[in-house]
Amino acid sequence: MAEDLSISIGSKTENYQSIIPQIKALIDGEPDLVANLANIVAALKEQFGWFWIGFYLVKKDELVLAPFQGPVACTRIKKGRGVCGTSWAKAETLIVPDVEAFPGHIACSSLSKSEIVVPVIRNNEVIGVLDVDSSELDTFDETDKKFLEEITDMVVFDV
User: Which of 56, 64, 80, 106 lies at a 20 to 30 A Cα distance from 71?
Assistant: First the structure.
């Protein structure tokens, strides 16, 4: 596929339904994990314009920053710390309407107001997370959860 995206302007569901086949085309047949993660976050950032989006990968006992789009970010996060570490520990997607109200929130940027973190689970083990931050309160909902989980399920991780 050419590296051009067709950005949709519609409902949130329509926007996901438009970008997901394009993401599939970008990563289909590409064996390099970093390249695929980079293209996924770039495509989602272009489509939705979120403040920050990126992956963290589990390396030993920490989440380590992987491809992302947005301002500089926390490089390492311990299991159970912040939204990302809590999502890893619980092995579930977390939707946080107001990060200031989340106990133990790690403020990589004071501009982040709401967040969703989707664990990447393979063989019943969390191997990474997809983290998305918005500069607006209450940005994420069950629609984001459904489609972002679908997107993380598409990625082939060699674990």
Answer: 80
